[in-house]
Amino acid sequence: MIDKITMFRVDRLELAFKPKPWAFAAERRVEIEAYFADLRREKPAIWNGRVLLMYHQVARDGVFSGDYLETDYASFSAWRAWGRPHAGVHDCFGAAAIIAADGACLLGVMGPQTFSAGEIYFPCGTPDPDDIADGYVDLDFSVRREVKEETGIDASEFTIEPGWITVVEGALIAQIKVLRASLPAEVLALRMRDYLSREKNPELSDIRIVRSPREFTPAMPTFVTTFLARHFAVL
To answer: Full-prediction pTM beyond 0.85?
Structure first.
C-alpha cells in the first residue's frame, strides 16, 4: 500500500511536549532490544539516546499544532526499520530546504555510519529533549542546529522564509523551512564539502546539487522529491 502524500503551507507551529508512555515501545521491548543489538553491531556509532515523537496533531487556520512524547532511539529506529507500522505516533521533524541564488537546492548524502546511510535529503533530524523549551518543542531551533552541524553554515547567513511547508506521508510529517542563500550552489557546496573534510565524524558523506526533477534518484525520500517538484515547477 502506498501512503497518500499531502503538502500544504502553515504560518506557524505550536508543538507541546506532553509526555506519556508509548505502548509500542513497551509491548515490543524484547524485539526492539534484539533489533537494536544487531544494528549496533553493524553501526557501532549509533547510540540509544532520547527522541520525541508526535502522538496528536491538527492543522487549522494556518497553525499546525501537535503533542510529543519521549522515547528511546532503539524503539524509534526499530519502528522506522519495520516500516512505521500503526503505533499511535508520527515522525514529525524539521528540515531545511537550502535554495541557492541560482535556484538549485543543496542536499546531503548520509554517511555510512548513520541509520539512513546513502539516503539523500535536506539537513534535518528527529527532535530530541534539547529542542524543548518551556514545555514546547522548537523545530525552528532544531532546524538551525542541524544546518550548522551538517553543513557548517550558520542559519543566520540565509534569508529564512516565514512559515513552513508541511509534507505528510503516512506516519511521516516533514516540517520544511525554506532557507534562501545569496550565493550560487557551487560556492555553497564547496564551503559545505570543505567543512565535512575537516570534521572527524561528519554526519554527511557528500553534498548533492539538484537543479531539476531529472536529477531525482531513488535515494531521495518522497517528502524531498515532493517538495522539490513543486519548487522547480514554479521557477
So the answer is: yes
